[in-house]
Amino acid sequence: MPGTSRQQPSRRAMLNQLVAAAAALPLIRLLPAAPNDQHDEWVEIDGWILKRSDVA
Amino acid sequence: MIFDTFQAFRSAEFAPKVVIIGSGPAGITVARKLAAKGVAVAIFEAGGEQFSPQSQAFYDGKVIGDPYFELDDTRLRQLGGSSGHWGGWCRLLDAEDFQAKPWVADSGWPIARSDLEPFLAETGDILGLPPLQADAPLSKDIRWVHLIKSEPVRFGEKYRSELAASPNLALVLDTYVTALKGDGTQVSGFDVWSAGAPQGAYPCEYAVVATGGLENSRLLLWSNEQSAGAVVPHAAALGRYWMEHPHFQCGNAVLTDADSIATSDHNDAFFSPTWRAMERKQILNFGIRLIKMPYEGMKMLVANLACTAPGTAEWVSEGLGQRLKCAAQLHMAWEQAPTAENGVQLSHARRDAGGVPRIELVWRKNDLERRTLAEGIRLFGQTLAQADLGRVRIADWIAKLQDYPVEREELGGNHHMGGTRMGTDPTTSVVDRNGAVHGMRNLYVAGSSVFPTSGQCNPTMTIVALACRLGDHLVEKIAADEAVASVKGNDAPAGGDVIPTAGD
């Protein structure tokens, strides 16, 4: 927009953001998996339609 | 009144306002509606009161494309039409079946299910049905659906005495209408063949073609050919968009509890996709029939699995343990994509005894249908697994992407739909929302040939509901036409032959 400018973050600020993102990674695993339509949660073995947990 | 021959009918000098060609569920239903309102009506039935091989031979034809039933086996040419071998399965098409599916070309009806719902009670009386139960969702993708197995109504048997007693109705047997005559705006009469010989022309004021889902196309195609297009003036879709409900066994299931899925007295239950699932997967409607198998069948299924996949068999046995009590066969019938290439053609080489070209039926299943089959069984399997109701095994020929099995019993449902489909666009339809042939004042079509799309369920209930609606429409149309004629000071029908009616 006219009359505004975006200030570049400092190197230190960028480093802090990276550290925070790395720390959050284990938490992301706890989030429920998004539903998908690609059969990722299903496996077919010899024609049987099974939940992945059936064969884990 | 019942006449065994056309000659006897002519001698009686009964003058019908409406002639209905064909005495199947659609024809008899429209006729009864009209007669009850005092409209003089004649039903011309090409066959006799009972089945005969001689009459049935008129239905011989040829199939081009995928394997299908013999055309003289898949329908009946006799009083009551194909209700004589109907199985009794009843369900009205779903509300979603009337909607256009943006991912399916040429889909959608010009009417909604709500246009037929006022006739549900009447249809239920005609077919002797219990109240319909609402569908129940099983998952976001699959719903349990109520398909009624009724005591099949043989229309000829059920309504014979009523037809015989009605003073407004003449049932004329052994009367084969071989061609309609028209001028591009209305029909004026028919060529009739009876007692083994041509009987000349017979005039009409209003005509309803109700000869079945194959024969309607044949009669109108031949009539058009004989009249240079003056019977169906907008004929681009005539004979085309023909559909069936392909039927195949699509797999088996082991159920975790014999009572986990409620089944009917016939040991079966039916399932269909939700609109959301059809839209998300871009597929057609389908119906899965789950038929519980006896215990021996379950043991064979697991034993078979142990031979081919011991690990999975062990999982099935151990994982489900004592809850493994029941197995089931899974059969699927699906909505066929309406494609112009599938349809009824007239043979250039073969004619029946009345001189009418025999049918050549072009019929093929397409890729969208194959995808519907494959996605449908998987959606059902995932639903059972997700709810821990059981596990599904897809039939080998589906899992291994092989051709359809060629088993006579499993080819289709003997459901003949399309060919004179209903719509607003004359380039893709033949009749309007009321069943009137586009551009024709007094010519109507009844029966499943007017279906623009097939849905997944058996068509008879929808055929009868549509016929009830057409009957009411015709009563109003005739009254309106007579009012106009009265204002003009002319009681004669607009154009065509002058015919005294029974009420005159």
Report on this structure.
- The complex is a heterodimer of chains A (56) and B (504).
- Chain A is of the alpha+beta class and 56 residues long.
- Chain A has one helix spanning 11-30; strands at 42-45, 48-51.
- In chain A, a hairpin with a 2-residue loop joins strand 1 (42-45) and strand 2 (48-51).
- The longest helix of chain A is centred in the middle third of the chain and has 20 residues, at 11-30.
- Residues 1-9 and 23-39 of chain A have low confidence and may be disordered.
- Chain B has 504 residues and is of the alpha/beta class.
- Chain B is 28% helix and 24% strand.
- Chain B has 13 helices and 23 strands.
- In chain B, the strands form six sheets. In chain B, strands 6-7-16-17-18-15-21 form a seven-stranded antiparallel beta sheet. In chain B, strands 1-9-3-2-13-23 form a six-stranded parallel beta sheet.
- Chain B is elongated and about 85 Å long.
- Classes of the chains: A alpha+beta (56), B alpha/beta (504).
- At the A-B interface, strand 1 and strand 2 of A face helix 10, helix 11 and strand 21 of B.
Compile the SSE list and pairings.
The complex is a heterodimer of chains A (56) and B (504).
Chain A: H1 11-30, E1 42-45, E2 48-51
Chain B: E1 2-3, H1 6-12, E2 18-21, H2 25-36, E3 41-44, H3 53-56, E4 61-65, E5 89-90, H4 95-98, H5 120-127, E6 136-137, E7 142-145, E8 148-149, H6 155-165, E9 169-172, E10 175-182, E11 187-194, E12 197-203, E13 206-209, H7 215-226, E14 240-243, E15 247-255, E16 268-273, H8 275-281, E17 286-293, H9 295-308, H10 310-320, E18 326-334, E19 343-351, E20 357-363, H11 367-386, E21 390-394, H12 396-399, E22 417-419, E23 443-445, H13 460-487
Parallel strand pairs in B: 1-9, 2-3, 2-13, 3-9, 4-20, 13-23
Antiparallel strand pairs in B: 5-8, 6-7, 7-16, 10-11, 11-12, 14-22, 15-18, 15-21, 16-17, 17-18, 19-20
Helix pairs in contact in B: 2-13, 5-13, 9-10
